[in-house]
Amino acid sequence: MRIFDFPDFPNPLRVRIALAEKNLGSLIDFVFVDLPGAEHKQEPFLAINPEGTVPVLELDDGTYISECTAIIEYLDHLEGKPTLTGTTPKQRAMIHMMQKRAERELLYAVGHYFHYGTPGPGPILMPYKRPEWEARTEWAGFERDRAMEAMRYFNDVLAKQPFVAGHEFSMADITVWSGLYFARVAKLEIPTELTALMAWHIEMSQRPSVVSPA
Q: How far apart are CA 181 and CA 111, in angstroms?
């Protein structure tokens, strides 16, 4: 199998952490995609993933799977022993619910702020941004506030339970951690009063798969 990605960007990092959790890194060949150079927006890559995003998993039969949730689902079930996506109907439902919230309210909000409120990954990608680029100050402020509200939400969640979706580590934890990683890149720090989120973040940052992703 091959994975097309750009190391250390939040979505590729999500999959690399999952690979480390599953000890599957040795099965993967990584293909570097130059995101700052907009390689993912050019026709050769768009033939692989019309969305123009990374990561993309290529199976040995030539099938391409994009979207982090789908990739992690596949990897988690590859050996018939899921550990990241739940084993009971309730676990699966809770994990997918929190995964969606983590993506939509935290990771995507930080991403929008990064692209519209900071220099982002560089000028080459600017022509591929939304038309709202000219009104980026207002847009970025809204997305920054949304990301900070998401931090407060997950702080409340983690004040009641050890992990984002309950009592077991899951892909939802990976997504929240990656969102906070991206937030730090965008200079959005966790407010000090969010003690539950800060404690969880410290613990997650020491997890072997996070320290040494695939």
A: 11
